[in-house]
Amino acid sequence: MRHLLLIPLCAALSACPTADPGPEPAPLTLVTYNAGLAIGFVPGAVERTPATAAAIGALDADVICLQEVWEPEMVQAVQAAATSHPHRFWPAPNPETLQDPACLGTDIDPLMDCMAAQCDGLCADELPACLLESCAFQFLGLEKDCMRCAQANVGATPDEIEGICRAEATQYAYDGAFGTGILSRWPITSTSELLLESTTTRRSLLHAVIQAPTGAVDVFCTHLTAVFSIIPYPRSEGSWAEEQAGQIAAIRAYMTAEASTGRIALMGDLNAGPLVAANDPEQPENYEAAAAGLDVPYVTQDRRCTFCPDNGISSVDSDDFGVLIDHVMLDGFAGATSSTRVLDDEITVETCGTFIPGAHSDHYGVSVTIQPDP
After folding, report:
1. Residue 19 falls within a domain, yes or no?
2. CATH of the domain at 226
3. Residues 283 and 205 in one domain
4. CA-CA distance, 234 to 145, in Å (whole number)?
5. What pTM does this model have?
């Protein structure tokens, strides 16, 4: 009888014991970051490497998709700093050199003469701007094979480029490195790579199945071709934009065929982004093709640029507007998402013996956290 009397009493009092709901499921945080460690293309790449590697290693993330970590010593620095991310997928370089000379006869002579007159004594970080500003006419006069070889030897001196391209035809920069890698706190149970059609720089899609505490996740990591406004496309047919569109089509088909966990994350610098907030659009049709059917939390939540005019080492075209081209796209995740920009603090960057305000890279990173439903 006493037990029966306790039933209505417990219903009325909050002090009665209740079932333990258990701990809240652990969140999953995904970060994409273009580290900008590109010698001869992004200022201070060599000088920034130690601090940029340390900043990457300090990220509070479960999975990091990195781009533009090109040289072997840079990869080693990042991996050494990322002690909280012992599981890695970093593809080996895939160089390609044709044995026939890329630059024939006197084809390259006018460019070399101009570079000698206008760019003598400049360091590697200053040469691309000098070439495009002071010797653009001579550069545009190169045959396509010669132009492609010159672009693929970014970071070399003009004399080195001439010597290489008169002897052979380098097809890809940085010895065929892809510059991309995946770092994970959690075990990687399988990997694959899709080689993408690209010009002067190797591009691919990395795929890793990661066994996170909340279950397996298909992580896809990439860095797509940039659509340059002032650097000519060094082939007789096609364009930078068409090349990027082809890469996106190949990626989406590969994701459909290879994903197996029911939870997908497509991460990376897509060099394409929407017109949103105070950002200019960048190849918006290609962005829409990449994002079709996927959730892009950062675009609807934080929305700040990732390639921005306030970054002293970025080459963004506008003085007022940036672009949002670094993305974490999701499918199949249940739960709330939050997002923020990371690695956007200002640091002093050494380049060509001078010091300028900048950041750890010419890009800022994007972090997206998924809090699973209880």
Report:
1. no
2. 3.60.10.10
3. yes
4. 7
5. 0.92
Q: What is the DSSP track for 38-103?
A: -TTTSTTHHHHHHHHHHHHHT---SEEEEEEE-SHHHHHHHHHH-TT--EEE-PPP---EESS-SS
- Per-residue tokens: 90: 């970093």
- Is residue 8, in this structure, part of any structural domain at all? no
Do both 209 and 150 map to the same domain? no
**Are 87 and 180 within one domain?**
yes
Query: pLDDT 10s per residue in the chain (374 long)?
Result: 444 334 444 444 445 555 566 677 889 999 999 999 999 999 999 999 999 999 999 999 999 999 999 999 999 999 999 999 999 999 999 999 999 999 998 989 999 999 999 999 999 899 988 998 999 999 999 999 999 999 999 999 999 999 999 999 999 999 999 999 999 999 999 999 999 999 999 999 999 999 999 999 999 999 999 999 889 999 999 999 999 999 999 999 999 999 999 999 999 999 999 999 999 999 999 999 999 999 999 999 999 999 999 999 998 877 789 999 999 999 999 999 999 999 999 999 999 999 999 999 999 999 999 999 88
